[in-house]
Write a structure and sequence with these properties.
Elements: H1 2-7, H2 19-26, H3 35-42, H4 73-90
Length: 91
């Protein structure tokens, strides 16, 4: 899964803490997945099949924006306000 994430341009967050496992993780740069394997992994259900542990991060970016928007204070304030409004409407 780490190779898949790196190959598609996302940043994996491995939970490895043992030195041997961390060293094994660096081996992901020595090979590549085939296009068929990437497509098969892309087709996995990101919520049901994995318990929600795979996410693309699309929900973190406004439509038409890019990843830098996530760190913009104005974006975060707008997101918080929208979330609060949604919670009030559902109450």
């Amino acid at each position: 899964m780490l190779r898949w994430a790196v190959q598609r341009g996302t940043v994996p967050l491995p939970r490895s803490s043992t030195p041997t496992r961390v060293a094994e993780n660096f081996g992901l740069f020595d090979w590549a997945l085939s296009p068929e394997h990437v497509a098969a992994l892309d087709a996995l259900d990101a919520t049901a099949g994995s318990g929600g542990r795979i996410m693309k991060g699309d929900h973190l970016v406004q439509a038409g924006g890019d990843w830098r928007d996530v760190w913009d204070e104005a974006f975060l304030a707008a997101w918080a306000a929208k979330r609060q409004q949604q919670q009030q409407q559902s109450a």
